[in-house]
Amino acid sequence: MTATQSITESTASQPPRLAIDGGTPVRTAPFLSWPVWDERDEQALLKTLRSGKWGSHADTGNVAAFSAKFAAYQDAQFGVAVTNGTAALEVALRGAGIQPLDEVIIPPYTFVATATAVLATGAIPVFCDILPDTFLMDSADAERKVTPRTRAIMPVHIAGQPADMDGVLEVAKRHDLKVIEDAAQAPGAAWRGRKVGGLGDAGTFSFQSSKNLNAGEGGMVVTNDREMADRCWSTANVGRIREGAWYQHEVMGFNLRLTEFQGAILLSQMEKLPAQYERRERNARFLDAELAKVPGIAPQARDERVTGHAHHLYIFRYDNSQFGGRGRAWFVKAMHAEGIPASQGYTTPLYRMNAVIQERRKWADLARSAGRDVTCPASPEEEALPNTERACGEQGVWLGQTVLLGEERDMQDIVEAVAKVQRAASRG
Ligand SMILES: Cc1ncc(COP(=O)(O)O)c(C=O)c1O
Fold first, then answer.
1. Strands 313-318 and 396-400, how do they pair?
2. For residue range 223-252, what is the model confidence (pLDDT) as tens digits?
3. Do 187 and 273 touch, CB atoms closer than 8 A?
């Protein structure tokens, strides 16, 4: 008997009282906490401490070894480690030659860094909609947003699922655009048999605390283009060039290096990544099958060309008409009361985010005062994108990746809680 059947049958006559209304929760046991570490992580850190070499070196040491190892894991030839995923995006954009007032097409259903990294280069983020069933960039809408000023397109592999890379690469080819994949959430994800990151000109990753591969902070640019890798390396190493002298600075750059401690923990955490990846995948497949049976719930659709999903998040669509008209905020509260840490995820499309609005307006005013055309709608209402509005406003519900590291029994609890809440809510 599946979890859905069990809750359906055991409650056929009268739905149990919801925990939010004082009933007994489906579970009280906590889910796994994150990060997880063991003796090998401890030894790796201790070894680095005792080595006395705490700063990273270009060619040897933990960070260099991790950069090569992670790039190879992502089927890319080169990896440039940087301080975080936001910096990785900016470094990749600079490496791709993005200049002030160039336009870069991005989806608005993502972390703010996708937009602020573009703005940090002085370029203008132009938003395209997402697909309603995958929450990922709609490449057809991206093409509609191309102008003579567009220089790059940045798909974001939200939740760890690759965006439609065939569509994105075709748009890029037709309009001669650079492609930078924001793969912060997607280590191990693959599109038609090839890992993400090196499918376009470059791809970026984050190793921030919540991420599937975690060093507290950290990031990386991967690419198959040696010159791109060298430009990124220079940007992250105060404008030095690889064979140059220590005080030789040839281009604008920053100090974005990781420490050897971060390199050590990333190397040892990476040993655990493949097994964690498999477990997330197994549990996500279980949830996909079981949650789809609950009225009003639609798990993130999986494009058949996706051959690897990193499951940084487990996203599903919530349809309140099957929940007695109760809003998503209520649903998330009801889930928490049942012991399931669901969240509403991104609730603000990036074109409604003040940080983005203000900074984009600043660059747009500058462009106009120089007599240049610029894409900058007068108000968020003018640029509102329907699928993004629905995903942020009422539909998107998330579970975090650590939940997916549980046992099948934990997944059954999730299904049981969703089904219980749906039955009770639909009866009013
Ligand atoms: C889609 C996306 N892009 C960029 C970032 C930025 O990464 P970081 O927090 O390491 O700067 C994150 C994560 O935080 C993210 O989820």
1. antiparallel
2. 999 999 999 999 999 999 999 999 999 999
3. yes
Question: What letter would DSSP give residue 328?
Answer: H
**Cα–Cα dist 102/149, whole Å:** 6
**Closest ligand 1 atom number to CA of residue 86:** 11
Residue 12: pLDDT band with limits 50, 70, 90: low
Which atom of ligand 1 is the closest one to the Cα of 113?
4
**Sorting pLDDT into bands at 50, 70 and 90, what band is 13?**
low
Nearest-atom number in ligand 1 for the CA of 117 is 4
- Give Cα separations from 306 to 105, 118, 166, 189, 303 (angstroms): 22, 27, 11, 8, 5
Residue recorded with tokens 């490449």 = 139
Measure CA 329 to chain center: 22
Distance 179 CA to ligand 1 centre (A): 18
Whole-angstrom Cα distance, residue 304 to residue 318?
Answer: 22
Question: What 8-state DSSP symbol labels residue 158?
Answer: G
Closest CA to 159 of 111, 112, 197, 115: 111
Q: How far is the CA of 311 from the centre of ligand 1 (A)?
A: 15
Instruction: Please state the pTM of the whole predicted model.
Output: 0.96
The ligand 1 atom nearest the CA atom of 158: 1
As for ligand 1, residues whose beta carbon falls within 6 Å of it are: 84-86, 110-111, 113-114, 156, 182, 184-185, 206, 208, 219
Burial group, residue 30, by CB count within 10 angstroms (0-12, 13-18, 19+)? exposed
d(CA 266, CA 82): 13
